[in-house]
Protein backbone atom coordinates (compact mmCIF):
# COMPACT_ATOMS: atom_id res chain seq x y z
CA UNK A 1 0.00 0.00 0.00
CA UNK A 2 1.44 3.41 -1.02
CA UNK A 3 1.30 6.29 1.48
CA UNK A 4 1.06 9.94 0.56
CA UNK A 5 3.68 10.78 -2.07
CA UNK A 6 2.94 14.42 -2.78
CA UNK A 7 1.49 16.96 -0.35
CA UNK A 8 0.01 20.08 -1.95
CA UNK A 9 -1.03 23.28 -0.25
CA UNK A 10 -3.30 25.66 -2.19
CA UNK A 11 -3.99 29.28 -1.29
CA UNK A 12 -7.69 29.11 -2.21
CA UNK A 13 -10.50 26.58 -2.61
CA UNK A 14 -10.98 26.57 -6.38
CA UNK A 15 -7.18 26.57 -6.79
CA UNK A 16 -7.15 23.43 -4.64
CA UNK A 17 -9.77 21.65 -6.76
CA UNK A 18 -7.81 22.81 -9.82
CA UNK A 19 -4.55 21.09 -8.81
CA UNK A 20 -6.42 18.10 -7.38
CA UNK A 21 -8.25 17.70 -10.70
CA UNK A 22 -5.08 17.80 -12.77
CA UNK A 23 -3.36 15.25 -10.52
CA UNK A 24 -6.48 13.06 -10.77
CA UNK A 25 -6.10 12.89 -14.56
CA UNK A 26 -3.64 10.10 -13.67
CA UNK A 27 -6.54 7.98 -12.36
CA UNK A 28 -4.91 7.88 -8.90
CA UNK A 29 -6.93 8.73 -5.82
CA UNK A 30 -6.57 12.41 -4.86
CA UNK A 31 -8.04 13.79 -1.61
CA UNK A 32 -8.67 17.40 -0.83
CA UNK A 33 -9.02 18.64 2.72
CA UNK A 34 -10.80 21.90 3.46
CA UNK A 35 -8.39 23.64 5.82
CA UNK A 36 -5.83 21.84 7.96
CA UNK A 37 -7.67 18.84 9.47
CA UNK A 38 -8.07 18.83 13.27
CA UNK A 39 -7.42 15.10 13.30
CA UNK A 40 -4.11 13.40 12.48
CA UNK A 41 -3.94 11.85 8.99
CA UNK A 42 -6.06 8.77 8.33
CA UNK A 43 -7.58 7.29 5.16
CA UNK A 44 -4.93 9.18 3.19
CA UNK A 45 -4.41 9.14 -0.58
CA UNK A 46 -1.21 9.09 -2.65
CA UNK A 47 -1.96 12.75 -3.45
CA UNK A 48 -3.23 14.98 -0.68
CA UNK A 49 -4.24 18.62 -1.22
CA UNK A 50 -5.00 21.05 1.60
CA UNK A 51 -7.16 24.02 0.62
CA UNK A 52 -6.44 27.21 2.53
CA UNK A 53 -8.06 30.62 2.14
CA UNK A 54 -4.78 32.52 2.47
CA UNK A 55 -4.37 34.34 -0.84
CA UNK A 56 -5.10 37.76 0.59
CA UNK A 57 -4.54 36.97 4.27
CA UNK A 58 -1.87 38.92 6.20
CA UNK A 59 1.59 37.40 5.60
CA UNK A 60 2.11 36.08 9.16
CA UNK A 61 -1.30 34.37 9.11
CA UNK A 62 -0.68 32.80 5.69
CA UNK A 63 2.72 31.50 6.82
CA UNK A 64 1.32 30.03 10.05
CA UNK A 65 -1.54 28.25 8.22
CA UNK A 66 0.72 26.94 5.48
CA UNK A 67 3.27 25.61 7.96
CA UNK A 68 0.48 23.83 9.85
CA UNK A 69 -0.63 22.28 6.54
CA UNK A 70 2.95 21.21 5.85
CA UNK A 71 3.19 19.48 9.23
CA UNK A 72 -0.07 17.60 8.60
CA UNK A 73 1.10 16.50 5.16
CA UNK A 74 4.49 15.39 6.54
CA UNK A 75 2.61 13.33 9.12
CA UNK A 76 0.64 11.79 6.25
CA UNK A 77 3.97 10.52 4.92
CA UNK A 78 4.68 13.05 2.16
CA UNK A 79 8.33 13.88 1.41
CA UNK A 80 7.64 16.11 -1.62
CA UNK A 81 5.52 19.23 -1.51
CA UNK A 82 3.83 21.66 -3.88
CA UNK A 83 2.77 25.24 -3.06
CA UNK A 84 -0.12 26.09 -5.41
CA UNK A 85 -1.04 29.72 -6.09
CA UNK A 86 -2.99 31.31 -8.89
CA UNK A 87 -2.00 30.87 -12.53
CA UNK A 88 -2.19 34.65 -12.74
CA UNK A 89 0.22 34.96 -9.77
CA UNK A 90 -2.40 36.89 -7.76
CA UNK A 91 -0.60 38.72 -4.96
CA UNK A 92 0.59 42.18 -3.96
CA UNK A 93 4.15 43.58 -3.35
CA UNK A 94 3.67 42.61 0.29
CA UNK A 95 1.79 39.48 -0.72
CA UNK A 96 2.16 35.89 0.36
CA UNK A 97 3.64 33.86 -2.49
CA UNK A 98 7.31 34.59 -1.72
CA UNK A 99 7.14 34.69 2.09
CA UNK A 100 5.20 31.42 2.23
CA UNK A 101 7.66 29.76 -0.19
CA UNK A 102 10.60 30.90 1.96
CA UNK A 103 8.91 29.61 5.14
CA UNK A 104 8.29 26.23 3.49
CA UNK A 105 11.88 26.11 2.22
CA UNK A 106 13.18 26.77 5.73
CA UNK A 107 10.98 24.04 7.21
CA UNK A 108 12.03 21.60 4.51
CA UNK A 109 15.72 22.52 4.75
CA UNK A 110 16.00 23.29 1.04
CA UNK A 111 17.81 26.21 -0.60
CA UNK A 112 16.01 26.38 -3.94
CA UNK A 113 12.55 26.19 -5.46
CA UNK A 114 10.90 26.95 -8.80
CA UNK A 115 8.00 29.26 -9.72
CA UNK A 116 5.94 28.08 -12.68
CA UNK A 117 2.35 29.39 -12.79
CA UNK A 118 1.94 28.50 -16.51
CA UNK A 119 -1.34 26.77 -17.42
CA UNK A 120 -1.34 26.58 -21.23
CA UNK A 121 -4.74 24.84 -21.47
CA UNK A 122 -6.24 27.91 -19.80
CA UNK A 123 -4.15 30.39 -21.76
CA UNK A 124 -1.48 31.15 -19.15
CA UNK A 125 2.06 30.99 -20.51
CA UNK A 126 5.44 32.30 -19.39
CA UNK A 127 8.13 33.55 -21.75
CA UNK A 128 11.36 35.22 -20.56
CA UNK A 129 9.78 35.44 -17.14
CA UNK A 130 6.76 37.37 -18.42
CA UNK A 131 3.32 35.93 -17.75
CA UNK A 132 0.70 36.06 -20.49
CA UNK A 133 -3.07 35.56 -20.24
CA UNK A 134 -4.06 34.46 -23.72
CA UNK A 135 -2.32 36.91 -26.03
CA UNK A 136 -2.12 39.68 -23.45
CA UNK A 137 0.68 40.35 -20.97
CA UNK A 138 -0.72 39.82 -17.46
CA UNK A 139 -0.70 43.56 -16.71
CA UNK A 140 -2.80 44.30 -19.81
CA UNK A 141 -5.28 41.48 -19.13
CA UNK A 142 -8.50 41.89 -17.08
CA UNK A 143 -6.33 40.93 -14.06
CA UNK A 144 -5.06 44.53 -13.99
CA UNK A 145 -8.44 45.47 -12.48
CA UNK A 146 -8.84 42.61 -10.02
CA UNK A 147 -10.56 44.06 -6.93
CA UNK A 148 -8.14 42.52 -4.38
CA UNK A 149 -4.95 41.71 -6.25
CA UNK A 150 -4.66 44.01 -9.29
CA UNK A 151 -1.73 42.75 -11.36
CA UNK A 152 0.08 45.79 -12.80
CA UNK A 153 3.34 44.11 -13.83
CA UNK A 154 3.70 41.04 -16.07
CA UNK A 155 7.26 40.16 -15.09
CA UNK A 156 7.38 37.36 -12.53
CA UNK A 157 10.92 38.17 -11.35
CA UNK A 158 9.94 41.77 -10.63
CA UNK A 159 6.73 40.63 -8.93
CA UNK A 160 8.53 38.07 -6.77
CA UNK A 161 11.70 39.98 -5.82
CA UNK A 162 10.07 42.38 -3.31
CA UNK A 163 8.41 39.42 -1.59
CA UNK A 164 11.57 37.39 -0.85
CA UNK A 165 14.89 37.82 0.94
CA UNK A 166 17.05 35.70 -1.41
CA UNK A 167 17.96 36.28 -5.10
CA UNK A 168 15.49 35.58 -7.91
CA UNK A 169 16.54 34.14 -11.30
CA UNK A 170 15.13 32.71 -14.52
CA UNK A 171 15.43 29.45 -16.41
CA UNK A 172 14.10 30.54 -19.76
CA UNK A 173 12.20 28.84 -22.58
CA UNK A 174 15.35 28.36 -24.67
CA UNK A 175 16.78 26.22 -21.89
CA UNK A 176 13.49 24.38 -21.28
CA UNK A 177 13.35 23.55 -25.00
CA UNK A 178 16.70 21.77 -24.68
CA UNK A 179 15.24 19.26 -22.24
CA UNK A 180 15.47 17.89 -18.71
CA UNK A 181 19.29 17.87 -18.41
CA UNK A 182 19.53 21.49 -19.54
CA UNK A 183 16.92 22.59 -16.98
CA UNK A 184 18.72 20.69 -14.23
CA UNK A 185 22.06 22.23 -15.27
CA UNK A 186 20.50 25.70 -15.22
CA UNK A 187 19.06 25.10 -11.74
CA UNK A 188 22.45 23.83 -10.53
CA UNK A 189 24.12 26.96 -11.94
CA UNK A 190 21.55 29.15 -10.17
CA UNK A 191 22.16 27.24 -6.94
CA UNK A 192 25.90 27.78 -7.12
CA UNK A 193 25.24 31.49 -7.74
CA UNK A 194 23.07 31.55 -4.60
CA UNK A 195 19.79 31.99 -6.52
CA UNK A 196 17.10 30.47 -4.34
CA UNK A 197 14.01 31.44 -6.35
CA UNK A 198 13.92 30.39 -9.99
CA UNK A 199 11.11 31.43 -12.32
CA UNK A 200 10.80 28.81 -15.07
CA UNK A 201 9.31 29.54 -18.50
CA UNK A 202 6.69 27.27 -20.07
CA UNK A 203 4.42 27.97 -23.02
CA UNK A 204 3.00 24.50 -23.71
CA UNK A 205 2.26 21.25 -21.90
CA UNK A 206 5.43 19.72 -23.39
CA UNK A 207 7.46 22.37 -21.52
CA UNK A 208 5.68 21.46 -18.31
CA UNK A 209 6.56 17.79 -18.83
CA UNK A 210 10.23 18.81 -19.07
CA UNK A 211 10.07 21.11 -16.04
CA UNK A 212 8.24 18.53 -13.90
CA UNK A 213 10.70 15.80 -14.91
CA UNK A 214 13.65 18.05 -14.06
CA UNK A 215 12.22 19.13 -10.69
CA UNK A 216 10.42 16.00 -9.52
CA UNK A 217 12.93 15.29 -6.74
CA UNK A 218 12.89 18.81 -5.31
CA UNK A 219 11.46 18.88 -1.78
CA UNK A 220 9.37 21.90 -2.82
CA UNK A 221 7.94 22.98 -6.16
CA UNK A 222 5.69 26.02 -6.51
CA UNK A 223 3.37 27.18 -9.25
CA UNK A 224 -0.02 26.85 -10.84
CA UNK A 225 -1.64 23.46 -11.13
CA UNK A 226 -0.40 22.46 -14.57
CA UNK A 227 3.27 21.85 -13.74
CA UNK A 228 2.13 19.32 -11.13
CA UNK A 229 0.09 17.37 -13.70
CA UNK A 230 2.98 15.19 -14.99
CA UNK A 231 4.13 14.22 -11.48
CA UNK A 232 1.95 11.09 -10.93
CA UNK A 233 3.26 9.42 -14.10
CA UNK A 234 6.84 10.37 -13.20
CA UNK A 235 6.48 8.97 -9.67
CA UNK A 236 5.01 5.78 -11.14
CA UNK A 237 7.99 5.47 -13.51
CA UNK A 238 10.38 6.14 -10.60
CA UNK A 239 8.73 3.39 -8.55
CA UNK A 240 7.65 5.82 -5.83
CA UNK A 241 4.04 5.01 -6.57
CA UNK A 242 2.87 1.49 -7.19
CA UNK A 243 0.38 0.58 -9.89
CA UNK A 244 -1.93 -0.79 -7.17
CA UNK A 245 -2.05 2.59 -5.34
CA UNK A 246 -5.66 3.63 -4.57
CA UNK A 247 -7.62 4.76 -7.62
CA UNK A 248 -10.49 7.22 -7.94
CA UNK A 249 -13.84 5.87 -6.78
CA UNK A 250 -17.03 6.32 -8.80
CA UNK A 251 -20.31 6.92 -6.97
CA UNK A 252 -23.84 6.79 -8.30
CA UNK A 253 -25.26 10.16 -7.27
CA UNK A 254 -28.96 11.11 -7.39
CA UNK A 255 -29.73 13.47 -10.25
CA UNK A 256 -31.31 16.33 -8.26
CA UNK A 257 -29.12 19.36 -8.93
CA UNK A 258 -28.67 23.00 -7.90
CA UNK A 259 -26.45 25.53 -9.66
CA UNK A 260 -25.20 28.49 -7.60
CA UNK A 261 -23.24 31.33 -9.16
CA UNK A 262 -21.61 34.16 -7.22
CA UNK A 263 -18.79 34.87 -9.65
CA UNK A 264 -19.01 38.06 -11.74
CA UNK A 265 -16.15 37.26 -14.10
CA UNK A 266 -16.67 37.77 -17.82
CA UNK A 267 -16.62 33.99 -18.35
CA UNK A 268 -19.17 33.27 -15.61
CA UNK A 269 -21.46 36.00 -17.03
CA UNK A 270 -21.32 34.19 -20.39
CA UNK A 271 -21.92 30.80 -18.73
CA UNK A 272 -24.96 32.06 -16.82
CA UNK A 273 -26.44 33.63 -19.97
CA UNK A 274 -25.85 30.46 -21.93
CA UNK A 275 -27.47 28.30 -19.21
CA UNK A 276 -30.55 30.55 -18.96
CA UNK A 277 -30.87 30.37 -22.75
CA UNK A 278 -31.38 26.59 -22.44
CA UNK A 279 -34.63 27.31 -20.57
CA UNK A 280 -33.30 26.18 -17.18
CA UNK A 281 -35.25 27.67 -14.23
CA UNK A 282 -33.28 30.65 -12.89
CA UNK A 283 -33.57 33.16 -10.07
CA UNK A 284 -31.41 36.29 -9.94
CA UNK A 285 -30.32 37.73 -6.60
CA UNK A 286 -30.43 41.49 -6.40
CA UNK A 287 -28.18 42.75 -3.58
CA UNK A 288 -30.30 45.83 -2.84
CA UNK A 289 -33.50 43.81 -2.56
CA UNK A 290 -31.68 41.24 -0.42
CA UNK A 291 -30.72 43.87 2.16
CA UNK A 292 -34.40 44.74 2.52
CA UNK A 293 -36.08 41.34 2.35
CA UNK A 294 -33.35 38.89 3.42
CA UNK A 295 -32.99 35.44 1.82
CA UNK A 296 -36.59 34.24 2.37
CA UNK A 297 -37.85 35.14 -1.11
CA UNK A 298 -35.16 33.09 -2.85
CA UNK A 299 -35.58 30.20 -0.39
CA UNK A 300 -39.32 30.23 -1.15
CA UNK A 301 -38.55 30.19 -4.88
CA UNK A 302 -36.14 27.30 -4.38
CA UNK A 303 -38.69 25.29 -2.37
CA UNK A 304 -41.05 25.35 -5.39
CA UNK A 305 -38.46 24.10 -7.90
CA UNK A 306 -38.16 20.64 -9.42
CA UNK A 307 -34.51 19.88 -8.66
CA UNK A 308 -34.30 17.38 -11.51
CA UNK A 309 -34.40 20.47 -13.77
CA UNK A 310 -31.17 21.77 -12.18
CA UNK A 311 -32.33 25.30 -11.29
CA UNK A 312 -29.85 28.16 -11.16
CA UNK A 313 -29.59 30.84 -8.47
CA UNK A 314 -27.18 33.59 -9.44
CA UNK A 315 -25.88 36.95 -8.33
CA UNK A 316 -23.61 37.11 -11.36
CA UNK A 317 -23.85 40.59 -12.85
CA UNK A 318 -21.99 42.90 -15.21
CA UNK A 319 -19.20 45.14 -13.86
CA UNK A 320 -21.37 48.30 -13.79
CA UNK A 321 -24.09 46.62 -11.66
CA UNK A 322 -21.44 45.19 -9.33
CA UNK A 323 -19.83 48.63 -8.90
CA UNK A 324 -23.22 50.24 -8.25
CA UNK A 325 -24.10 47.68 -5.56
CA UNK A 326 -20.66 48.01 -3.98
CA UNK A 327 -20.94 51.81 -3.91
CA UNK A 328 -24.32 51.61 -2.14
CA UNK A 329 -23.60 48.75 0.30
CA UNK A 330 -19.80 48.49 0.58
CA UNK A 331 -17.54 45.96 -1.20
CA UNK A 332 -17.12 43.53 1.71
CA UNK A 333 -20.75 43.89 2.84
CA UNK A 334 -22.31 43.08 -0.53
CA UNK A 335 -19.86 40.20 -1.08
CA UNK A 336 -20.69 38.68 2.31
CA UNK A 337 -24.43 39.19 1.84
CA UNK A 338 -24.44 37.29 -1.44
CA UNK A 339 -22.06 34.59 -0.25
CA UNK A 340 -24.24 33.95 2.84
CA UNK A 341 -27.39 33.85 0.73
CA UNK A 342 -25.94 31.38 -1.78
CA UNK A 343 -24.58 29.29 1.10
CA UNK A 344 -28.07 29.20 2.67
CA UNK A 345 -29.47 28.13 -0.71
CA UNK A 346 -26.93 25.28 -0.89
CA UNK A 347 -28.00 23.98 2.52
CA UNK A 348 -31.71 24.32 1.68
CA UNK A 349 -31.20 22.55 -1.66
CA UNK A 350 -29.30 19.72 0.03
CA UNK A 351 -32.06 19.37 2.60
CA UNK A 352 -34.60 19.24 -0.27
CA UNK A 353 -32.65 16.37 -1.85
CA UNK A 354 -30.12 18.04 -4.18
CA UNK A 355 -27.13 15.73 -4.45
CA UNK A 356 -25.30 17.51 -7.27
CA UNK A 357 -24.18 21.02 -6.41
CA UNK A 358 -22.39 23.24 -8.91
CA UNK A 359 -20.81 26.46 -7.62
CA UNK A 360 -19.14 29.28 -9.58
CA UNK A 361 -16.61 31.56 -7.88
CA UNK A 362 -13.76 30.98 -5.44
CA UNK A 363 -15.13 33.02 -2.52
CA UNK A 364 -18.59 31.67 -3.19
CA UNK A 365 -17.21 28.12 -3.16
CA UNK A 366 -15.59 28.81 0.20
CA UNK A 367 -18.88 30.02 1.66
CA UNK A 368 -20.83 27.05 0.26
CA UNK A 369 -18.41 24.33 1.38
CA UNK A 370 -18.21 25.90 4.83
CA UNK A 371 -22.01 26.02 5.13
CA UNK A 372 -22.29 22.41 3.93
CA UNK A 373 -19.69 21.50 6.61
CA UNK A 374 -17.59 19.63 4.08
CA UNK A 375 -14.21 18.53 5.42
CA UNK A 376 -12.87 16.26 2.67
CA UNK A 377 -13.44 15.96 -1.05
CA UNK A 378 -12.45 13.02 -3.25
CA UNK A 379 -11.66 14.09 -6.78
CA UNK A 380 -13.71 12.59 -9.60
CA UNK A 381 -14.15 13.20 -13.34
CA UNK A 382 -12.85 16.43 -14.90
CA UNK A 383 -15.42 18.83 -16.36
CA UNK A 384 -13.07 21.42 -17.87
CA UNK A 385 -9.32 22.03 -17.44
CA UNK A 386 -8.86 22.74 -13.74
CA UNK A 387 -12.46 21.98 -12.72
CA UNK A 388 -13.23 18.44 -11.53
CA UNK A 389 -16.34 16.96 -10.02
CA UNK A 390 -15.66 15.98 -6.43
CA UNK A 391 -17.43 13.66 -3.99
CA UNK A 392 -18.03 14.62 -0.39
CA UNK A 393 -20.32 13.94 2.53
CA UNK A 394 -22.53 16.70 3.91
CA UNK A 395 -24.83 16.03 6.85
CA UNK A 396 -24.64 12.30 6.14
CA UNK A 397 -25.54 12.67 2.45
CA UNK A 398 -23.19 11.67 -0.38
CA UNK A 399 -22.89 14.77 -2.59
CA UNK A 400 -21.18 15.53 -5.90
CA UNK A 401 -19.77 19.05 -5.73
CA UNK A 402 -18.20 21.07 -8.55
CA UNK A 403 -16.32 24.23 -7.56
CA UNK A 404 -15.54 26.43 -10.57
CA UNK A 405 -12.93 29.13 -10.53
CA UNK A 406 -14.40 32.37 -11.94
CA UNK A 407 -12.40 32.37 -15.17
CA UNK A 408 -12.44 28.66 -15.94
CA UNK A 409 -14.68 26.53 -18.17
CA UNK A 410 -16.26 27.27 -21.53
CA UNK A 411 -19.62 29.01 -22.09
CA UNK A 412 -21.48 25.71 -21.78
CA UNK A 413 -19.87 24.84 -18.44
CA UNK A 414 -23.08 24.33 -16.43
CA UNK A 415 -24.47 21.94 -19.05
CA UNK A 416 -21.06 20.25 -19.47
CA UNK A 417 -20.86 19.60 -15.73
CA UNK A 418 -24.20 17.79 -15.67
CA UNK A 419 -23.42 15.76 -18.79
CA UNK A 420 -20.00 14.70 -17.42
CA UNK A 421 -21.52 13.20 -14.28
CA UNK A 422 -23.98 11.21 -16.41
CA UNK A 423 -21.10 9.76 -18.43
CA UNK A 424 -19.00 9.06 -15.32
N1 LIG B 1 -24.23 41.37 -8.11
C1 LIG B 1 -23.17 41.49 -7.29
N2 LIG B 1 -22.82 42.67 -6.80
C2 LIG B 1 -21.76 42.78 -5.98
N3 LIG B 1 -20.99 41.74 -5.58
C3 LIG B 1 -21.31 40.52 -6.03
C4 LIG B 1 -22.41 40.34 -6.91
N4 LIG B 1 -22.49 39.04 -7.21
C5 LIG B 1 -21.51 38.42 -6.56
N5 LIG B 1 -20.80 39.31 -5.82
C6 LIG B 1 -19.66 39.00 -4.98
O1 LIG B 1 -18.49 38.99 -5.80
C7 LIG B 1 -17.55 38.06 -5.24
C8 LIG B 1 -17.15 37.12 -6.35
O2 LIG B 1 -16.05 36.40 -5.90
P1 LIG B 1 -15.82 34.88 -6.23
O3 LIG B 1 -14.47 34.55 -5.69
O4 LIG B 1 -16.97 34.06 -5.77
O5 LIG B 1 -15.81 34.84 -7.81
P2 LIG B 1 -14.53 35.07 -8.78
O6 LIG B 1 -13.64 36.13 -8.18
O7 LIG B 1 -15.05 35.26 -10.15
O8 LIG B 1 -13.86 33.63 -8.69
P3 LIG B 1 -12.30 33.20 -8.52
O9 LIG B 1 -11.88 33.67 -7.17
O10 LIG B 1 -12.40 31.70 -8.57
O11 LIG B 1 -11.57 33.80 -9.67
C9 LIG B 1 -18.25 37.35 -4.10
O12 LIG B 1 -17.86 37.91 -2.87
C10 LIG B 1 -19.72 37.61 -4.39
O13 LIG B 1 -20.51 37.55 -3.23
O1 LIG C 1 -4.60 28.78 -10.94
C1 LIG C 1 -5.71 29.25 -11.18
O2 LIG C 1 -5.92 30.11 -12.04
C2 LIG C 1 -6.87 28.80 -10.32
O3 LIG C 1 -6.65 27.52 -9.84
C3 LIG C 1 -7.06 29.67 -9.14
O4 LIG C 1 -6.16 29.78 -8.33
C4 LIG C 1 -8.40 30.25 -8.96
O5 LIG C 1 -8.47 31.15 -7.88
TrEMBL record:
Domain of life the protein comes from: Bacteria
Per UniProt, the enzyme's principal EC class comes to transferase
Annotated signal sequence is none
Q: What residue stretches are annotated with the Four-carbon acid sugar kinase N-terminal domain?
A: 6-230
Reaction(s) catalysed by this chain, per the record, are:
3-dehydro-L-erythronate + ATP = 3-dehydro-4-O-phospho-L-erythronate + ADP + H(+); 3-dehydro-D-erythronate + ATP = 3-dehydro-4-O-phospho-D-erythronate + ADP + H(+)
**InterPro entries for this protein:** 4-carb_acid_sugar_kinase_N, 4-carb_acid_sugar_kinase_N_sf, NBD_C, NBD_C_sf, OtnK
Question: Keyword set for this entry?
Answer: ATP-binding, Carbohydrate metabolism, Kinase, Nucleotide-binding, Transferase
An example of a GO molecular function for this protein is: kinase activity
Four-carbon acid sugar kinase nucleotide binding domain span: 259-414
Q: Does the keyword Transferase apply?
A: yes
Record bears the keyword Coiled coil:
no
* EC number of this enzyme: 2.7.1.217
Membrane-spanning regions, if any?
none
What is the recorded function of this protein according to its Swiss-Prot or TrEMBL entry?
Catalyzes the ATP-dependent phosphorylation of 3-oxo-tetronate to 3-oxo-tetronate 4-phosphate.
Family affiliation:
Belongs to the four-carbon acid sugar kinase family.
Name of this chain's protein = 3-oxo-tetronate kinase
Instruction: Please name the taxonomic classification of the source.
Output: Bacteria, Pseudomonadati, Pseudomonadota, Alphaproteobacteria, Rhodobacterales
Amino acid sequence: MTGTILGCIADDFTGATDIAGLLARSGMRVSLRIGVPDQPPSDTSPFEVIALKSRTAPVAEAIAETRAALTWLKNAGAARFFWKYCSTFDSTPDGNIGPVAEALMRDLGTDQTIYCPAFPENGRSIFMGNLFVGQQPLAESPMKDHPLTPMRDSNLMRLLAPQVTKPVGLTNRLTVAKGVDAVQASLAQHRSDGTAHVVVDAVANADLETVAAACRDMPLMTGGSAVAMPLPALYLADGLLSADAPKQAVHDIDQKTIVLSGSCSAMTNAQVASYIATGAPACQLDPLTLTQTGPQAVLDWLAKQDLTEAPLIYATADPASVKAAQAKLGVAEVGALIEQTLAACAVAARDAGARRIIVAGGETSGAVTTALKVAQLDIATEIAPGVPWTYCVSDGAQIALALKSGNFGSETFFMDAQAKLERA
